[in-house]
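Hello, quick one for you while I still have it in my head. A protein chain has come my way and I'm curious about its shape. Can you walk me through what the tokens say about the fold? No rush at all, and the record is pasted right below.
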Amino acid sequence: METVYDHLVTVLTDKFEVTEDQLDPAVPLGDLELDSLAIVELYVTLQEHWGVPLEEDESAAEMTLGQFAGAVAAQLPAERNATEPRADR
């Protein structure tokens, strides 16, 4: 799960300009001051990178970064290492 979390942090800092001092596994997504469009874009970005379906709903803002990374990691196929992005990228 660490690699999924690390990638999530990289996306948040690079693409959404979230500062590193805002990021912690216990911080809820809603505390990162991302509007609803940015959260949808985050989901799409991660879906494209990892090739997993992510369902965005109102409860997403309440998920911590650690929980969110865990949810993504849980959807990765067991035969594929979590450090590897989708093969067709």
Summary: The two ends are 21 Å apart (CA to CA).
